[in-house]
Design a protein that fits this description.
Blueprint: H1 3-38, H2 44-49, H3 55-65, H4 77-120, E1 125-130, E2 135-138, H5 140-145, H6 150-153, H7 167-180, E3 184-191, E4 197-208, E5 214-223, H8 225-247, E6 251-255, E7 261-264, H9 269-272, H10 276-282, H11 286-289, E8 304-313, E9 319-331, E10 334-342, H12 344-357
Antiparallel strand pairs: 1-2, 1-5, 3-4, 4-5, 6-7, 6-10, 8-9, 9-10
Helix pairs in contact: 1-4
C-alpha cells in the first residue's frame, strides 16, 4: 500500500470517528431537550431517530450534503481533510449547543421545582375543576384540608366533600363562574374524609381549555373555621354587652372629638324619653345634655372628669338631675364616653331634708 493510500485511509477512519462522535453528541442534546420538555428520560433509540428534526442539526446536514460525492473511498486527501475540518467545526458547535441546552434544562427544572413548591405547599388549597365539576388538578394543601391525598382526588367529583345543605350554593357558585366568566366568591361547609366539617371560603375564576373555551374553573379554598368562631364569639359578646347596658339604670353615650354620636345605649329612653334612633338623629351630645356643659380641654392630661351635675328636661318636658362622668376612650369610632346617672330622686330627698332642718 502506498503512503498516499495509507494517509487517505487514515483520514477516512478519522472522518468516520468524528461522525460517530457528532451523532453521539446530537443524541445527547436531544435527550436533554426532551427531558427539559417532559421531565422524563426518553427512549434512547427513539431519541436518536429524532436528531435530524432539530433545526440546527438539519442545517448542518444540508451543509454536509453539499459535500457528498458518493463513495467516500473515492475522495481525495484534500477533500477528506476539508470534510474533517468541517466536521470538527460542527463538533465544536454541537458541544456549545449541548452546554446551552443543559443550562436551559437546569433553569427549567429549577423553575419547575419552585412552581411545584409554591403550588403544593401554599397556605391555601388549589383546585382546577372541569365543567362537569370533576377535579382535574389539586395541590397537597387542599388534599390535607380534606383529609386525603392528591391521587385520591384526581378525576373525582368535588361535590363528594360538600355538605348536603350547601349543594345548592356550591353548584350555583360554579355555574356563575362559567356563566358570567368573572371571579366569584362564596362560603361553603365541607366535610373531610373522616366526617369532620369545616367552613371554607371559595374564590373561583374561569379558565380556558386548550381550544380557548371557558370549560374549567380554578378555585382557591381557605379554611375559615377560626374566623367563624371568632365572629360568633364577637357576636355573643356584643349581645351580652347590649343586654348589660340595657339592664342598667345608667345611660352610656360615645362621641367623637366633635361631639357627634358614635354609639347610643339602648336604655337611653329611661332617662331622656327618646329612642336610640331619635337621640342619634340629634347628632350632637350638646343637644341632649345642653350646650357648653363640658369643656373637652379638661380631659387633657386626665383620663376622666367625674361628677358633673347637670339639669336637663326629657322628651315630655320633665326635669331630671344627672350626674355625668366623661372618660377618654377609643371604641366604636369614638373618643369620649359619657355615663349619665339620674339622681333626681336623691336630689329631691336632699332638698326635702334641708327644708325640714331649716324651715322658712
Amino acid at each position: 500500500m502506498t503512503d498516499q493510500s495509507h494517509n487517505r485511509d487514515q483520514l477516512i477512519s478519522e472522518l468516520v470517528d468524528i461522525c460517530q462522535r457528532a451523532a453521539e453528541i446530537g443524541a445527547t442534546i436531544l435527550l436533554a431537550n426532551q427531558t427539559a420538555d417532559t421531565g422524563e428520560e426518553p427512549e434512547s433509540a427513539e431519541g436518536r431517530s429524532k436528531v435530524a428534526s432539530l433545526p440546527w442539526w438539519a442545517e448542518r446536514a444540508m451543509r454536509l450534503k453539499s459535500l457528498d460525492v458518493g463513495d467516500i473511498s473515492t475522495l481525495s486527501q484534500n477533500d477528506v481533510r476539508r470534510l474533517i475540518r468541517e466536521l470538527q467545526v460542527h463538533q465544536v458547535e454541537v458541544k456549545m449547543q449541548n452546554e446551552e441546552l443543559r443550562r436551559v434544562h437546569r433553569q427549567l427544572r429549577e423553575s419547575r421545582d419552585r412552581y411545584s413548591d409554591l403550588y403544593d405547599f401554599a397556605p391555601v388549597g388549589y383546585f382546577t375543576l372541569s365543567n362537569d365539576w370533576m377535579i382535574l388538578e389539586v395541590n397537597r394543601t387542599a388534599a390535607t384540608m380534606l383529609g386525603t391525598t392528591t391521587d385520591a382526588l384526581l378525576n373525582k367529583p368535588f361535590s363528594a366533600f360538600v355538605c348536603k345543605a350547601d349543594y345548592g350554593a356550591y353548584y350555583s357558585h360554579l355555574r356563575q363562574v362559567l356563566g358570567t366568566k368573572t371571579r366569584q366568591t362564596c362560603e361553603i361547609e365541607l366535610e373531610r374524609s373522616d366526617g369532620t366539617r369545616f367552613c371554607a371560603f371559595f374564590e373561583s375564576v374561569p379558565v380556558q381549555d386548550p381550544e380557548g373555551r371557558f370549560t374549567r374553573s380554578r378555585t382557591v379554598i381557605s379554611d375559615i373555621s377560626d374566623l367563624k368562631r371568632a365572629q360568633e364569639a364577637l357576636r355573643e359578646s356584643e349581645e351580652l354587652h347590649r343586654f348589660t347596658l340595657s339592664s342598667i339604670s345608667d345611660t352610656v353615650l360615645i362621641t367623637d372629638n366633635e361631639g357627634t354620636f358614635t354609639y347610643v345605649c339602648p336604655n337611653v329612653h329611661v332617662i331622656f324619653g327618646y329612642s336610640p334612633d331619635e337621640v342619634t338623629s340629634l347628632r350632637k351630645v350638646d343637644r341632649l345634655l345642653g350646650k357648653g356643659f363640658f369643656d373637652p380641654s379638661l380631659l387633657d392630661g386626665h383620663e376622666e372628669v367625674a361628677n358633673i351635675e347637670r339639669r336637663i328636661r326629657d322628651k315630655s318636658g320633665e326635669e331630671h338631675v344627672l350626674l355625668v362622668n366623661v372618660k377618654r376612650v377609643s371604641i366604636k369610632g369614638g373618643t369620649c364616653l359619657f355615663s349619665c346617672r339620674d339622681i333626681t330622686a336623691l336630689k329631691k330627698a336632699q332638698e326635702a331634708l334641708e327644708h325640714t332642718r331649716y324651715p322658712a
